[in-house]
């Protein structure tokens, strides 16, 4: 009887029970006339701007000194409001102790009176007066490269332009600073030369690296701009994923982890100035000439991945090849879209595959508690880089899973993700085959990512008891036994015509 | 304790499915087959004794059999 009661109660209670550590990113509202308190001074600042991929990747190393009389913890990093939303994977570490992990970072709302929004870096320990700390700040800026010329012929080289300020935007006085710009090749037809910022030639060129500075900026007010524009060859696609929806479905009964990625792609490179020529494309494709179009997509999968599929709105795309690996080495899914994706062209598709759950799920030392470790976005591999404007990852846990917690894995270097407090996480219920209450679903939403986050991993823990697992067979059992009882009961009704 | 430490601590106990993927069809098919036979037997004699001795096992077998069969055909519930 106790078993029956437990079963019935188990079937009726909701699977989405108390969940912890789910975050909704919040933004700090600043007063209208806010200005960061001038409690720090940047003694030396070096910015490395990497333009080798289809987005801008910057790392800023800055020696910060506390010039106030009190210990300080909050360091403000400004970005223009129009750029702020396109900054992705923002991370700050102690440059001299990177293994200690990233610092907690908050973001501010846009204020109508200010052109800037701020990342507020909270130092783990207050910085004593006159003490110094070296910050390693890294981030990507999406959609900041513009194709120049905006239209080209199909087999022309493509050039991108990037505009930035020679003075690194900072909320504090900076004594000396320089910027190193790394280009994908030495073909840089146009770049701004400065004449009055320093003695000697500026920039200094060394191969594909151009160095602006060092500048003595002790007397330059914080926030001063000196625009620099560079234009360089980038005959590769500027692959932009407008939206990536990724589903990871965990099945304890099936021992399976099913993954499906749905992509909405766009090439943000130069558009074609004349009509697409299939003949020219076949020629250049045969010669494997560099092109600004997405020709092929290589998708590395975990060892042991099986049952891959590649479909779009029309149906199965037969121009794909799967190299399964030998069980220990990574598998490769090679996809050819239905058409080359030139600048301004869109393409949407989905890929999916299965894995054995044993490689991704473990039972913790607490009974009936499970820990799942899965790649967060995985995504395809492209030497020219991929930028993701929005990523929505759904982890569909078994029906009845509760007490869900998540965390992204941190290493000694950047994992390409923002802090966990900047990831929007929510729990919901998702009903599909054989479900009564629906499966507990953890949804994570992140904006502005790049393929730097390809190797990022997600850990989810949840409680899932044997009774939760029995919900499906017991539901079917309940249905069938009801039919049998009904047959028996109806069969016992005496409907014969006779005198009683 | 970070969740990564939880993961590392659990390295000795990877998930083991009740029925491995390769055997799901065999197990599911046989459970369903026995369930159908028992249902047939119950259909021949619809007494209370038959309900308890044949109908009940048939329902249990059908419950588990259908879960394994749907997994075997690729719908991992």
UniProtKB/TrEMBL annotation, chain A:
Component of the oligosaccharyltransferase (OST) complex. Residues 1-18 form the signal peptide. Its main location: endoplasmic reticulum. It is a single-pass type I membrane protein. It holds the Pfam family Ribophorin_I. Keywords: Endoplasmic reticulum, Membrane, Signal, Transmembrane, Transmembrane helix. Coiled coil: none annotated. Pathway: Protein modification; protein glycosylation. It comes from the Eukaryota. InterPro entries: Ribophorin_I. Subunit of the oligosaccharyl transferase (OST) complex that catalyzes the initial transfer of a defined glycan (Glc(3)Man(9)GlcNAc(2) in eukaryotes) from the lipid carrier dolichol-pyrophosphate to an asparagine residue within an Asn-X-Ser/Thr consensus motif in nascent polypeptide chains, the first step in protein N-glycosylation. N-glycosylation occurs cotranslationally and the complex associates with the Sec61 complex at the channel-forming translocon complex that mediates protein translocation across the endoplasmic reticulum (ER). All subunits are required for a maximal enzyme activity. GO terms for biological process: protein N-linked glycosylation via asparagine. This is Dolichyl-diphosphooligosaccharide--protein glycosyltransferase subunit 1. The chain crosses the membrane at residues 474-495. GO terms for cellular component: oligosaccharyltransferase complex. The keyword Transmembrane helix applies. Belongs to the OST1 family. It is found in: Endoplasmic reticulum membrane.
Automatic annotation (TrEMBL), chain B:
InterPro entries: TMEM258/Ost5 (IPR007915). It is found in: Membrane. Signal peptide: none annotated. It holds the Pfam family Ost5. GO terms for cellular component: oligosaccharyltransferase complex. It comes from the Eukaryota. Keywords: Membrane, Transmembrane, Transmembrane helix. The chain crosses the membrane at residues 25-44, 56-76. One of its GO terms (biological process) is protein N-linked glycosylation. It is a multi-pass membrane protein. Belongs to the OST5 family. Subunit of the oligosaccharyl transferase (OST) complex that catalyzes the initial transfer of a defined glycan (Glc(3)Man(9)GlcNAc(2) in eukaryotes) from the lipid carrier dolichol-pyrophosphate to an asparagine residue within an Asn-X-Ser/Thr consensus motif in nascent polypeptide chains, the first step in protein N-glycosylation. N-glycosylation occurs cotranslationally and the complex associates with the Sec61 complex at the channel-forming translocon complex that mediates protein translocation across the endoplasmic reticulum (ER). All subunits are required for a maximal enzyme activity. Component of the oligosaccharyltransferase (OST) complex. This is Dolichyl-diphosphooligosaccharide-protein glycosyltransferase subunit OST5. It comes from Penicillium steckii.
């Amino acid at each position: 009887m106790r078993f029956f009661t437990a079963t019935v109660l188990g079937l009726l209670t909701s699977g989405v029970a108390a969940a912890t550590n789910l975050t909704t990113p919040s933004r700090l509202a600043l007063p209208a006339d806010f200005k960061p308190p001038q409690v720090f001074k940047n003694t030396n600042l070096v910015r490395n701007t990497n333009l080798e991929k289809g987005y801008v990747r910057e790392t800023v190393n800055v020696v910060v000194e506390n010039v106030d009389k009190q210990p300080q913890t909050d360091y403000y990093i400004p970005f223009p409001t129009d750029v702020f939303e396109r900054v992705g994977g923002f991370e700050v570490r102690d440059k001299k102790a990177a293994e200690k992990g990233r610092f907690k970072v908050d973001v501010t709302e846009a204020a109508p009176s200010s052109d800037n929004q701020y990342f507020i870096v909270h130092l783990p320990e207050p910085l004593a007066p006159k003490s110094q700390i070296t910050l390693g700040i890294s981030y990507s800026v999406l959609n900041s490269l513009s194709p120049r010329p905006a239209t080209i012929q199909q087999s022309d080289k493509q050039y991108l332009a990037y505009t930035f300020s020679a003075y690194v935007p900072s909320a504090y006085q900076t004594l000396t600073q320089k910027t190193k710009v790394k280009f994908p090749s030495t073909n840089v037809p146009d770049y701004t030369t400065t004449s009055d910022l320093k003695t000697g030639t500026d920039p200094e060129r060394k191969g594909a690296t151009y160095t602006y500075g060092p500048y003595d900026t002790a007397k330059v007010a914080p926030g001063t701009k000196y625009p620099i524009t560079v234009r360089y060859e980038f005959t590769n696609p500027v692959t932009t994923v407008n939206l990536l929806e990724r589903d990871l479905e965990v099945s304890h009964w099936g021992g399976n982890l099913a993954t499906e990625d749905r992509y909405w792609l766009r090439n943000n490179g130069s558009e074609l100035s004349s009509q697409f020529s299939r003949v020219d494309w076949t020629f250049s494709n045969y010669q494997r000439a560099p092109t600004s179009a997405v020709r092929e997509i290589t998708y590395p999968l975990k060892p042991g991945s099986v049952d891959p599929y590649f479909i779009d709105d029309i149906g199965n795309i037969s121009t794909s090849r799967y190299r399964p690996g030998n069980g220990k080495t990574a598998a490769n899914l090679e996809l050819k879209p239905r058409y080359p994706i030139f600048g301004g062209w869109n393409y949407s598709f989905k890929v999916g595959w299965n894995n054995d759950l044993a490689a991704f799920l473990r039972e913790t030392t607490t009974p009936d508690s499970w820990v799942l470790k899965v790649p967060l976005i995985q995504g395809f591999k492209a030497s020219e880089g991929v930028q993701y404007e929005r990523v929505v990852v759904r982890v569909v846990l078994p029906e009845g899973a509760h007490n869900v917690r998540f965390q992204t894995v941190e290493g000694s270097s950047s994992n390409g993700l923002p802090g966990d407090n900047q990831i929007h996480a929510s729990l919901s219920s998702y009903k599909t085959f054989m479900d009564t209450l629906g499966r507990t679903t953890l949804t994570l939403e992140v904006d502005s990512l790049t393929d730097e986050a390809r190797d990022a991993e997600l850990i989810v823990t949840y409680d899932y008891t044997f009774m939760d697992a029995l919900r499906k067979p017991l539901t079917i059992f309940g249905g069938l036994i009801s039919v049998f009882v009904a047959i028996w009961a109806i069969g016992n009704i005496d409907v014969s015509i006779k005198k009683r | 304790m970070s969740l990564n430490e939880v993961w590392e601590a659990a390295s000795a106990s990877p998930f083991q499915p009740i029925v491995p993927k390769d055997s799901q069809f065999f197990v599911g098919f046989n459970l369903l087959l026995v369930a159908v036979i028992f249902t047939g037997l119950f259909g021949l004699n619809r007494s209370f004794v038959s309900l308890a001795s044949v109908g009940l096992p048939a329902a249990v077998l059908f419950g588990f059999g259908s879960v394994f069969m749907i997994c075997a055909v690729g719908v991992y519930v």
